[in-house]
Write a structure and sequence with these properties.
The chain is α+β, with helices and mostly antiparallel strands and about 180 residues long. It has one domain (about 10-170): Peptide Deformylase (Alpha-Beta Complex). About 25% of the residues lie in helices and about 25% in strands. The chain contains 3 helices and 7 strands. The strands form 2 sheets. Strands 1-2-3-6-7 form a 5-stranded antiparallel beta sheet, with helices on both faces. Strand 6 (about 110-115) and strand 7 (about 125-130) form a beta hairpin. The longest helix is centred in the first third of the chain and has 16 residues, at about 25-40. It is globular and about 45 Å long. The structure holds nickel (II) ion. Nickel (II) ion binds near residues 98 and 138.
């Protein structure tokens, strides 16, 4: 079991679009395993590859720790693409392992249709309009270099600026390994 350090708000790789995966080699398999371990260790519901320093278009989810979702197990999404979004939206409070202890309400489409590939690069289609849809949209944003705080209301965002600076300066408490402050 390998726990990788999680990148934090302001780390360059979190602000860059990730790259498509064209071949699944041992490195990718290893990365996925380590990402699942890292997500579980931090009690996260999802983790994107650039949150552990990789530029690959891939994220993992596991809602199994959430009440009412005990049947869920880890899911792996390679090269995901949201191809449909419902008109109906919902407002839900989100958090992020790369933005420790900070939360904010985010409005997003309630339902999504996602095309993605598994570890054999076989294509799948998924429709969800519940918690999984929310987690997928959050992780999908990561793969496009976007933080959830960029989607909260401007006035609310302003209130978070001090806390975000603290995170960048590593002046916050966190109970899982994170990256060092970039030079
Ligand atoms: Ni996140």
């Amino acid at each position: 079991m390998t726990i990788l350090p999680i990148t934090l708000y302001g780390d360059e790789i979190l602000e860059k679009k990730t790259k498509q995966i064209t071949k699944v080699d041992d490195k990718i398999i290893r990365l996925v395993k380590d990402m699942i371990d890292t997500m579980h260790n931090a009690n996260g519901m999802g983790l994107a590859a650039n949150q552990v320093g990789s530029n690959k278009a891939l994220f993992v989810t596991d809602l199994g720790g959430v009440k009412g979702y005990e049947d869920e197990s880890p899911r792996v999404f390679l090269n995901p693409k949201i191809v449909e979004q419902s008109e109906e939206t919902s407002v839900i409070e989100e958090g992020c392992l790369s933005i420790p202890s900070l939360r904010g309400e985010v409005e997003r489409p309630k339902g999504i249709k996602l095309i993605y590939q598994d570890l054999e690069l076989k294509e799948h289609e998924l429709y969800d309009e519940d918690l999984l849809a929310r987690v997928i949209q959050h992780e999908y944003d990561h793969l496009n270099g976007k933080y959830f705080v960029e989607r909260i209301e401007k006035d609310e965002f302003k209130k978070l600026k001090k806390s975000l600076k603290k995170i960048q300066d590593r002046k916050m408490d966190v109970d899982y390994p994170v990256t060092q402050k970039p030079k």
